[in-house]
Write a structure and sequence with these properties.
By secondary structure, this protein is an alpha/beta fold. It is 40% helix and 18% strand. The protein is built from 18 helices and 14 strands. Strands 1-2-3-4-5-6-7-8 form an eight-stranded parallel barrel, surrounded by seven helices. Strands 9-10-11 form a three-stranded antiparallel sheet. The protein is globular, with a radius of gyration of 25 Å.
């Protein structure tokens, strides 16, 4: 990428650091769906994964490189430790991409050197230099990160950066790995690097930060003022612990306040040119996609993409907005892809109109997926008089972005009431095609359904989260259910939408169980252990 000092490069790490968020594990197909949407969003770089971490990660990076890494698409990047095997795997995985990048890293803080790496500064310096040169032997575009840079000795940090740039690093990334810094400190760190690394003009300064103190976005904006030109961020801010800097917040802050940031990028104050390549109208759709596939709900008061981001409860605010939106809104909701939710389709609408509307909403679906979604649409339209864009989005996401199709819900029937014992009967189709039925009682209808499903699937798990959200207002609204299960140390998410919330609950639970079951199958194949579900399934 040619260095442009008057714009900001958006480096999206949703598929790498974002996926490290507990419970956010994605399969290869889901990663591919998100990568395609990130390309439509206009991100400059997609960090597609950590190729050496597992065969699944390698496959995901390689497939994204093949399908999304086109000549006019984003750079496809793979993370790699400063180890030859990691770097070689990264190079092989990104090889199909028209534009590829290897991102290698090693810790530089004294606390990491002493307790994690058990190496001296001299050893780390030599490794960093050697491994950047090794990565450079595979590809021209090499990024280097001194992990925990925020807590590193500045003089040692300057030395590492100078040597790695000399070895061929074209981007140097400065991570606040533990989310420790305040904005003024982070700005000073970036300015210090610009002033004290002699060859810094030969590399793009990037920043990566975590939100442990809720300061990641503020830190990045201060870094931009001091010379950072690449921002490493995630959709909805998901990631390790409290998450990463949020892409949508950074992009919209730079857009809404571009006249403030223009001079820091050498532009005139009055310039209306955007500071990033992001198509902001794709932001909301991308946020919803990542939320649905990861099972990580967006809090209602989340900036930019939360359900309440453009809602006004106060009478004074409502009065002002009705007179002029600028009184209480600093950006237009349509700018981030929200629509007025006008009714566009109903039960008499045809497949062509349905497909055309999906294209208008930004969905690109195959003929098979379109047919599946249309059948679901007709089913919902028979129960729901008016179908909104939000309903369509929920229908498409529910139909074409599912977990591995192992167990399938065939029947859900419940009996409950104020003076009745909640009882549920379920029928599931097994991966072998057999239909199994069982029944159970519970504290409520959903509890009874889940206990009945557990009797069929027979995989030990702990339900740690159950969430229900209404897609639109009204008694006939589609309900979205998101659940998270824990098995051992791993968390598996499931999501489903239906006008019947009990059915949605059953489908979401089975989706999560399918992810868990698939993980157990992979473990069984690797170790030869017997899958408990296959060993002890009951009828």
């Amino acid at each position: 990428m040619k260095t442009q000092t008057d714009r900001i490069i958006i480096f999206d790490t949703t598929l790498r650091d974002g996926e490290q968020c507990p419970g956010a594990t994605l399969n290869v197909d889901e990663k591919l769906i998100i990568a395609r949407q990130l390309a439509r969003l206009g991100v400059d770089v997609i960090e597609a994964g950590f190729a050496y971490a597992s065969p699944g990660d390698f496959e995901a990076v390689q497939k994204i490189a093949q399908t999304v890494g086109t000549e006019d698409g984003p750079i496809i990047c793979s993370l790699a430790r400063a180890i030859k095997a990691d770097i070689k795997a990264a190079a092989e995985a990104i090889e199909p991409a028209a534009k590829g990048r290897i991102h290698t890293f090693i810790s530089t803080s004294d606390i990491h050197l002493e307790y994690q790496l058990r190496k001296t500064r001299g050893e780390v310096l030599a490794i960093a230099e050697e491994m950047v040169a090794y990565a450079k032997s595979f590809i021209d575009d090499v990024e280097f990160s001194p992990m925990d840079a925020a807590r590193s000795d500045p003089e040692f940090l300057y030395q590492v950066l100078e040597r790695t740039i000399a070895a061929g690093a074209t981007t140097v990334n400065i991570p606040d790995t533990v989310g420790y810094m305040t904005p003024s400190e982070f700005g000073d760190l970036i300015r210090g690097i610009r002033e004290n690394v002699p060859n810094i003009d030969k590399a793009v300064i990037s920043v990566h930060g975590h939100n442990d103190l809720g300061l990641a976005v503020a830190n990045f904006l201060e870094a931009v003022k001091n010379g950072a030109r690449q921002l490493e961020c995630t959709i909805n801010g998901i990631g390790e612990r409290a998450g990463n800097a949020s892409l949508e917040e950074l992009v919209m802050a730079l857009h809404v306040r571009r006249q403030y940031y223009n001079p820091f990028l050498g532009r005139s104050v009055e310039s209306e040119e955007p500071l990033t390549n992001i198509d902001t109208r794709q932001i909301y759709k991308t946020s919803r996609l990542v939320s649905n596939l990861t099972g990580m709900l967006v809090q209602p008061n989340k900036a930019i993409v939360g359900a309440n981001a453009f809602a006004h409860e106060s009478g004074i605010h409502q009065d002002g907005v009705l007179k002029n939106k600028l009184t209480y809104e600093i950006m237009d909701a349509q700018l981030v892809g929200l629509t007025n939710n006008q009714i566009v389709l109903g039960k008499h609408s045809g497949r062509h109109a349905f497909g055309a509307r999906l294209k208008e909403l930004g969905f690109e679906v195959s003929e098979t997926d379109l047919n599946k979604a249309f059948l679901k649409f007709k089913d919902v339209a028979d129960k729901k008089k008016e179908i909104t864009d939000w309903d369509l989005e929920a229908i498409v996401n529910d139909e074409i972005q599912q977990a591995p199709d192992l167990f399938r819900v065939e029947l859900v029937q419940v009996s409950c009431g104020s003076n009745a014992c909640p009882t549920a009967t379920v029928t599931l189709r097994t991966p072998e095609g057999e239909e199994l039925t069982d029944a159970a009682i519970g504290t409520g209808p959903v509890d009874a359904v889940y206990k009945a499903i557990n009797r069929v699937v027979n995989v030990p798990n702990q339900l740690i989260e159950f969430s229900v959200q209404s897609v639109t207002a009204g008694i006939d609204a589609i309900g979205e259910v998101t659940i998270r299960l824990k098995h051992g140390e791993r968390i598996f998410a499931g999501h489903s939408a239906n006008t019947d919330i009990i059915v949605a609950s059953a489908q979401a639970y089975v989706n999560a169980l399918n992810r868990l079951y698939a993980a157990l199958q992979r473990k069984e194949a690797q170790s030869g252990e017997e899958n408990p579900a296959a060993a002890g399934r009951t009828v």
